């Protein structure tokens, strides 16, 4: 079962400053620019005490000053924040080597193969970060990146939120659409004109209406986001996590043989890429997207890593048999993960 953790440091810049200056604890602290509240700079972050006055990131410093003149304004010290960030990332790598660095104060971890419950893993992450830096973080654990990021924001600060696979749609239905990563103020305003204010509202819109309003690509994103669907892999700076190929049919097809031939062709391409790049993989999976953008994945783990076309094809077909092809198919994909380098290949 896929488990992705999103780690978001709590008011990171302000937290680093408070750790350096304990006398500021409990006071409204605003970090931005050169620390001059009358400058043309913007707020980088604010302590939770300052946020109670409505002060938020990207707010002009002068507006923050008007909201809370008694706040302590400090300049941004990226050198100090970067040093602490490096300690955070080292602590996270001690939990899982599969990490996507998502910025100075956040990251994703693939914790799918770690022993223990999601609750236990989340507590380990929080403890490692706290031991390394003295700071708190909020953690979300879910079946994919999008849900994990949403979850990490649900119980800030110092929170741990877990979304199980069967809870995906129900846990996010009541959230404002802006809580979905990738939905900004322009899309929020457009959705509001359609009477859509929550993720649940968005999930009730038919795909045809979304396409008419936003175009095919954006519509697909909104349709999947409202249902907690996200098959993106972590983008790491280490070894690649998988090799994959997919194709979208010009017209949705009900022909099972067409689907099978496509799976075989994609398996051949993936296996060839593995051999070209000097990798073998142990986890083979497929993705099927039906008409209406309803997407399903299945995967299987092999006894040993392979780059053989026949082995990949057979495993992909075994996954395909676990999906009823009872509707028109829009897209087919094949992937091979859990990669390892072939001895003597590369560095």
Q: Main β-sheet, in a few words?
A: 5 strands, mixed
User: Which shape, going by the Cα principal axes?
Assistant: globular
- What fold name goes in the CATH topology slot of the largest domain? Dna Ligase, domain 1
Please give the domain count. 4
* Number of alpha- plus pi-helical segments: 13
Task: Explain the overall architecture.
The protein has 347 residues and is of the alpha+beta class. The chain has four domains: 4-12 and 79-168, Reverse transcriptase/Diguanylate cyclase domain (Alpha-Beta Plaits, 2-Layer Sandwich), CATH 3.30.70.270; 14-77, MutS, DNA mismatch repair protein, domain I (3-Layer(aba) Sandwich); 173-225, DNA polymerase, domain 1 (Orthogonal Bundle), CATH 1.10.150.20; 242-341, Dna Ligase, domain 1 (2-Layer Sandwich), CATH 3.30.1490. The protein has helices at residues 12-20, 48-51, 61-67, 78-93, 118-133, 145-152, 168-172, 185-193, 199-203, 207-214, 216-225, 256-277, 309-320, and strands spanning 4-9, 29-31, 45-46, 72-74, 99-101, 106-110, 137-142, 160-162, 242-253, 279-290, 295-306, 329-341. The strands form three sheets. The chain has a five-stranded mixed sheet. The model has no long low-confidence stretch (mean pLDDT 92).
